[in-house]
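Minutes, structural biology subgroup

Action item carried over from last meeting: produce the structure token record for Transmembrane emp24 domain-containing protein 11 (Eudyptes filholi). EB confirmed the sequence was re-checked against the source entry. Recorded below for completeness.
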Amino acid sequence: LALYFHSGEREEKCIIEDIPSDTLVIGNYKVQRWDIHKQDFLEYAPGLGMFVTVTTPSAEVLLSKLYGPKGTFSFTSYLSGEHVICLQSNSTRFVAFAGSKLRIHLDIRVGEHFLDESVVQAKDKVNEVNSRLEHLIEQIHHISKEQNYEREREEKFRKTSEETNSNILWWAIVQTLILISIGIWQIKSLRDFFISKKLV
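Output recorded by EB:
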């Protein structure tokens, strides 16, 4: 997931990421500040910090840390579900222009394990092949976890659908019984009315 969004200084922006359990998540970000004189965003935003907060599906804070204007954060999920990742600028300078317009670039990678470049570039080809194999195995494990998580979600959705269909069926049966009862009661009431008026 790679994106950028605009924000006011000290304004909190959040995204929701659906993550399987026991999965490494790595986020890279960069903050740019709007320059009034140039009428464009500066390449960097010196003096600004970025406060990153990650909340689990059970509303537990998994990560809460202040970083610089450009940085990398990472965490490992222990619960499956929607994790909320929030970023809020926080000026590290004494004077803060709280109304400044910011552009935040964010790149989130779920389940990626990066190769150790020093090993890859090593002369010993056996170590390089071994490192690449380990990387592939980690990727296979991640794909397997993703598939298991999707199966769990599909099973949960199927059960919910079946319960809803069952409830609709019972409600239709109850409605039919109520309509039949009201019809029988109306026929009996009309019959009694006609008999009392000696019309039949």
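Discussion: Confidence is low (pLDDT under 50) at residues 93-98.
Next step: EB to file the record with the rest of the batch.
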